[in-house]
Amino acid sequence: MSGDHKSIYVLNGDNDSKSGTSNPFPVTGAITPSQASTATTDSFVTVGTGSTVVLAANAARKVALIVNDSDETIYLSYGGTATLNSGIRLNASGGAIREELYTGAINAISTSGSKILTVTEI
């Protein structure tokens, strides 16, 4: 069993601590490790002057990360038609949003069109 030892980090904000062979945490019962999601989709979307689908609704979505990789502000809409100067603003050259709760459709719009969003969905 000594060769199977794994360290556990406990992060509580004040007294972060690390377990190890010299500082074990007492454990009662069985621990069943879960497999982290490995279904990651990386893509890009070219955003037009009309509302453009960035992500379709996906009930299985855990996280979406959307980054504005263009030279122009892009606006997002959750579940509806994207319109200029409304909704969530992603500033040019790296404006980003990380969404961990919403699993519906996300749409975008830009002023001049042909602007790129990089998109990661897990």
Class of the domain at 41-121 in CATH? Mainly Beta
Task: Give start-end ranges of low-pLDDT stretches.
Answer: 5-14
Average of pLDDT: 83
* Rg, Å, rounded: 21 Å
Strand segment tally? 10
What does this structure look like?
It is a single chain. The protein has 122 residues and is an all-beta fold. The chain has a domain at 41-121: Jelly Rolls. Helix content is 0%, strand content 36%. The protein has no helices and 10 strands. The chain has strands at 9-10, 17-18, 41-47, 52-55, 64-68, 74-78, 88-90, 96-99, 106-110, 115-121. The strands form 3 sheets. A 4-stranded antiparallel beta sheet has the order 3-10-5-8, with no helix packed on it. The chain is elongated. The protein starts with 8 loop residues before the first strand and ends with a strand.
Topology:
Elements: E1 9-10, E2 17-18, E3 41-47, E4 52-55, E5 64-68, E6 74-78, E7 88-90, E8 96-99, E9 106-110, E10 115-121
Antiparallel strand pairs: 1-2, 3-10, 4-9, 5-8, 5-10, 6-7, 6-9
State the main characteristics:
122 residues; mainly beta; Jelly Rolls; four-stranded antiparallel beta sheet; 0% helix
